[in-house]
Input
Amino acid sequence: MPQKNHEKAAEHNQEAAKHHKAASKHASEGNYEKAAHHAQAAHGHQQKANDHSSKAASKYAEKAGTMKKEDADEGVMQDNGHSRKP
Output
């Protein structure tokens, strides 16, 4: 369910923000080991947030129809990222 994915993405983004702030604080104090720890934790939360966000977007695309279907309707084919007429 997309709403649940949005909630999870928001939670992970909030956790990432907390870790980024902690990393900044420790770096300004010269404690780079702790800064690195918090930066890594922030990165993990950001990845999880991105995963949940992607899942939510996929659910919407399934319900609304995909770009591939729209492109096919217009007679446009994708070839290595470039649009071309068949």
Remarks:
- Confidence is low (pLDDT under 50) at residues 75-80, 82-86.
- The helical segments are 2-28, 32-64, 67-74.
- The beta strands are 77-79, 82-84.
